[in-house]
Design a protein that fits this description.
This protein has helices at residues 32-57, 59-72, 75-86, 91-109, 111-132, 156-159, 180-188, 223-242, 267-272, 296-309, 334-338, 350-355, 357-369, 385-396, 410-414, 416-420, 430-438, 456-472, 486-495, 507-515, 519-530, 535-544, 548-552, and strands at 2-4, 7-15, 147-151, 167-172, 192-193, 207-211, 217-219, 257-261, 278-282, 315-318, 375-379, 403-407, 425-428, 476-478, 499-502. By secondary structure, the protein is of the alpha/beta class. Helix 3 (75-86) packs across helix 4 (91-109) and helix 21 (519-530) runs antiparallel to helix 22 (535-544).
C-alpha cells in the first residue's frame, strides 16, 4: 500500500534487528538490588536518549518519541522487571519477558494500542543491547547516496533524525496508512510503501524503485524505467508549482483546501503550503501522557496560536479524542478503559467526555476564550442524533458558534440527517469510517486492502452523508487521509464535499488536480467509481474521467 506519494529509487538498505533474545532462565551473580539498579539505569538511559532524539527532531517525531520515552519508564513495566529479577532472572531476560508480555497484550488490543506494540519491541531491544554492551539497533553502514530504507517495520527512533536528502523511499513489510512509518514519511515528504510482504528479502545494495502512490516496488528496474520515473517526477513538480491560490476546479468551483494539524509545531508548515485554514486541529497533544490535565491557560495559548496562524481562515478544532484507544492517565478509570477487550469499540471521543464532563467543560471554556467567527468546534466519535444534540447544546451554552460533529461511525453516516438537525456542519473522517464499515483494524497490514478509501461501499457512505448535508443546506467537509489522494480529492468534490483537509505535504498535488478538471468531470469520476465493485476498479474508472492526472504525473 502506498502511504506517502512520490517515486524514490536507489540502493536498498535492509535494516534488521540484531539484538539476540536473552537465554531463557538466564540468571545473575551478585545481589538482586545491584541487578535491579542495572536494569533501572538502562531503562532511564534509553528513555533519556529517546526524548533527546525527539527534541532534536521536532514536529510529529517529537511527540511520538516523547511518548516512547514515557513507555520506557512505565511504572507497571518497572515493577514487572524488578519482580522477575527478585525471582532470579538476569536483567536482560527480565526486561525481555516483561516487555514481551505487555507487547503481546497490546498487539491483541488492535487500534491505537496495537500500534504501540512495535514501540515496546524497539524499547526492549534498546535496553537489552545496552545491558549487553552491544551497539543500539539502528542504521549503520548505510550508502552515501540516497537509499531506499527497507525493514520489517521502522521505529520512530530509527527515522526521526534522517534528513529528506538521505532517504529516497521507505518500504516496510508491516504497517498501514496510519502507522508511524506512514506518518513520518508524509511529514518528511518521502515516498513510502507499507505492508509489502517479503521486502526484507531484497539483497542489500540492489537498486529499488518505490512508488508511494500506487504501492508498486520494483527490484532492479532498468535504466529506462528509472529515467521515465525521474522525468515524470520533474514534470510533476513543475506542474504542481504552477497551481497556486485558493482551491478551485478548472471551471471556478471553490473548494477550500485546509490542513490537518496535530499541534502548534505543524502550523508553520501548513501556512507555507498554502492551506486556507485548518480542517482538523487535533487537541490530543495537550492531554496525552500526563498525570494532570492541561490548564486553562495552556489550552488557550494552543488554540489562539491556531487562530492567529490563519487570520480570516476557518479553524476547526476537534475536541479531545481520548479514551480507550488513547488512554488518559489523569482520569481515574483509564486503567480499566485500557483493559477493554475491543478498545476501538469502547469509550473514546465523545463517549468518554460525557462520562467525564469536567474535561470537556474546561476545553470548551478555553475555546470560548479565543472564540471568533472563524473558530469552529467539532466532536469525534458521534454515533447518534441525540449525542450530536447534547454536544451542540454544551457548546452553545458557552457562546460557541460553528458547532459540528465528525462522521466516522457508519450509524452517523446512515442517519446523518438526524445529526445535522442539531449542528452547523459535519466533517467525514474516512480513516475510522473505513475501519468501522469493514471491521478492519486501521493499524493491521493484513487487512489494509479493506482500509482502501476507494472501496465503493465507503464511497456510498460518503455520498449519503454529503447528500444529507446538501438537503439540510449545511457544509460537509472531508478530513480523513483519503483527501490527500489527488484522484480521490476530485471524486470527493464530485460527490459534493464542500472542503478538503489533509496533511500539509499533500496540498500542492490536490490543488493542481482540482485545477486541471471541471466540476462535471469530478462528478463523472465519482459516479464511475461508485458503479464498480472493487477498490481497484473504482480507482481505475475514476481516473479514466480525470485525464489531467496523467499530465500532472499524479
Amino acid at each position: 500500500m502506498g502511504v506517502s506519494p512520490g517515486i524514490g529509487h536507489g540502493p536498498a538498505y535492509v535494516m534488521t534487528v540484531s539484538v539476540p533474545e536473552p537465554p531463557e532462565g538466564a540468571t545473575y551473580t551478585g545481589e538482586a538490588d545491584q541487578e535491579k539498579e542495572r536494569a533501572m539505569a538502562a531503562l532511564r538511559q534509553v528513555a533519556g536518549e529517546l526524548e533527546s532524539r525527539g527534541n532534536q527532531a521536532g514536529g510529529e517525531a517529537e511527540e511520538i518519541l516523547k511518548a516512547q520515552a514515557l513507555m520506557a519508564e512505565d511504572p507497571g513495566l518497572v515493577v514487572k522487571v524488578r519482580t522477575l529479577i527478585d525471582r532470579g532472572l538476569a536483567a536482560p531476560r527480565a526486561v525481555f519477558e516483561a516487555f514481551t508480555k505487555y507487547r503481546d497484550v497490546l498487539a491483541g488490543s488492535g487500534g491505537y494500542l496495537g500500534e504501540r506494540a512495535a514501540d515496546l519491541n524497539d524499547i526492549r531491544n534498546r535496553v537489552i543491547a545496552l545491558l549487553y554492551g552491544q551497539a543500539m539497533p539502528g542504521l549503520r553502514g548505510a550508502p552515501a547516496e540516497p537509499y531506499v530504507l527497507v525493514a520489517r517495520d521502522l521505529a520512530p527512533a530509527d527515522t526521526a533524525l534522517l534528513a529528506k536528502g538521505q532517504i529516497a523511499a521507505f518500504v516496510t513489510e508491516e504497517g498501514g496508512p496510519t502507522s508511524h512509518t506512514a506518518i513520518l514519511a508524509r511529514a518528511m515528504g518521502v515516498p513510502a510503501v507499507v505492508a509489502c510482504r517479503g521486502a526484507t528479502g531484497i539483497p542489500n545494495g540492489v537498486r529499488v524503485m518505490a512508488d508511494g502512490t500506487s504501492g508498486v516496488v520494483r527490484v532492479e528496474p532498468d535504466e529506462s524505467a528509472v529515467a521515465d520515473a525521474v522525468s515524470a517526477a520533474r514534470a510533476r513538480q513543475a506542474a504542481l508549482s504552477s497551481a497556486t491560490g485558493p482551491g478551485r476546479t478548472a471551471d471556478g468551483h471553490s473548494v477550500p483546501l485546509l490542513a490537518n494539524v496535530g499541534g502548534p509545531s505543524e502550523l508553520e508548515a501548513a501556512v507555507a503550503a498554502g492551506a486556507e485554514g485548518i480542517g482538523l486541529y487535533r487537541t490530543e497533544f495537550l492531554f496525552l501522557d500526563r498525570a494532570e490535565p492541561p490548564s486553562l491557560e495552556e489550552q488557550v495559548r494552543a488554540y489562539r496560536a491556531a487562530v492567529e496562524a490563519f487570520p480570516g481562515g476557518k479553524v476547526i478544532v476537534r475536541t479531545l479524542d481520548g479514551g480507550a484507544d488513547k488512554p488518559l492517565a489523569f482520569l481515574p478509570s483509564s486503567a480499566a478503559a485500557s483493559a477493554e477487550p475491543n478498545p476501538e469499540l469502547g469509550e473514546r471521543g465523545l463517549r468518554r467526555l460525557r462520562r467525564f464532563p469536567e474535561v470537556m467543560d474546561a476545553q470548551l471554556s478555553a475555546l470560548a476564550a479565543v472564540a471568533s467567527e472563524d473558530l469552529m468546534v467539532m466532536a469525534p466519535m458521534v454515533a447518534t442524533g441525540e449525542e450530536a444534540g447534547w454536544f451542540a447544546r454544551a457548546c452553545r451554552a458557552r457562546g460557541l458558534g460553528g458547532v459540528g460533529v465528525m462522521i466516522e461511525i457508519p450509524s452517523a453516516a446512515l442517519r446523518a440527517r438526524d445529526l445535522l438537525a442539531s449542528v452547523d456542519f459535519v466533517s467525514i473522517g474516512t480513516n475510522d469510517l473505513a475501519q468501522y464499515a469493514f471491521a478492519a483494524d486501521r493499524q493491521l497490514g493484513a487487512v489494509s486492502t479493506l482500509q482502501d478509501p476507494w472501496q465503493p461501499a465507503l464511497l456510498d457512505l460518503v455520498a449519503m452523508t454529503v447528500s444529507a448535508a446538501s438537503e439540510a443546506g449545511k457544509p460537509c467537509g472531508i478530513c480523513g487521509e483519503s483527501a490527500a489522494d489527488p484522484a480521490m480529492a476530485c471524486v470527493l468534490v464530485g460527490l459534493g464535499a464542500s472542503t478538503l483537509s489533509m496533511g500539509a505535504g499533500a496540498l500542492a498535488a490536490v490543488r493542481a488536480a482540482l485545477a486541471a478538471h471541471t466540476l462535471a468531470q469530478c462528478r463523472q469520476a465519482a459516479d464511475a467509481a461508485r458503479a464498480r465493485t472493487t477498490a481497484a476498479e473504482a480507482r481505475a474508472a475514476a481516473r479514466a474521467h480525470l485525464p489531467g492526472l496523467d499530465h500532472l504525473g499524479l
